[in-house]
Amino acid sequence: MWQQTNPLLNLRLVKIKMDNKSTVLLNIADVYPVSYSNGPGRRSVIWVQGCTLKCPGCFNQAFQPHISQYLVDPQNFALKITDLCQEHNCEGITLTGGEPFQQSQAVVQFVEIIRENDFNIVCFSGYTYPKLVESTHEDIRTLLGMIDLLIAGPFDISNQCYRTWFHDPDKELVYITDRISSERINNLQDLEFIVEGSDISVTGFPEQKDYKILKDLFEKNQLEINLR
Ligand code: SF4
Question: Model pTM?
Fold first, then answer.
């Protein structure tokens, strides 16, 4: 076991070998304390590590392998994220990935505490909504009932957006509760730059042509582009 600091968060997260089966751990790929383009309002965003769906052209291929990244106790991590949301005046969190439903047991434990603290939950999934609803897996069904807004369905490279949001006809926006209204989704910011020291990350939903321009610009300046 060893500890690693996520530079974006300055949180000490414990990295534990994957063969530790005694505790349910949540495997996190990345966290942004504040984002305006991954759901309505100010939100903390959590990318989980691991997804077996392999959508052609997946925008986050580094987050596909189910390899150990930041393995965290879901409840302790939820308390840290709750503090972070309060500190940054966020209205809720967005779960994305990777595939949150492939870690549903740990995600349920995490989300339970976030909800208790009255933050709203947006969740992306590469599974379709009918597929999730049909699941007989108890944790998947429980998680589905804890989300306010689900953005469901696989990524489709043939669409104009490099990633998917309201422009993508294949993504289904499922308003599971009335805590987030559809009007708020129509006014979302598409793109956001997050600068941390010499690290620049781009998050949001650029159109493919804009992403290509950005990528060329970053490469020209010998910068690595991280699209989240
Ligand atoms: S669901 Fe998301 S992370 Fe998984 S393969 Fe598709 S685009 Fe990539």
Answer: 0.84
Tokens of 120: 């709203």
Q: Residue 210 domain-assigned?
A: no
pLDDT single digits (tens) 127-170: 999 999 999 999 999 999 999 999 999 887 776 665 555 556 66
Any domain includes 169: yes
Q: Are strands 149-152 and 43-48 parallel, antiparallel or unpaired?
A: unpaired
Q: Identify the CA nearest to 55 among candidates 156, 145, 124.
A: 156
Distance 162 CA to ligand 1 centre (A): 12
In a domain, 46, yes or no: yes
Domain count along the chain:
1
Q: Which residues pair with 6 in a beta bridge?
A: 11
How far apart, in whole angstroms, are the C-alpha atoms of residue 22 and residue 150?
30
193-209 pLDDT, tens digit each:
777 776 777 777 777 77
- Residue having the nearest C-alpha atom to atom 6 of ligand 1: 55
Domain extent for 150: 2-190
How remote is the CA of residue 86 from the centroid of ligand 1, in Å? 30
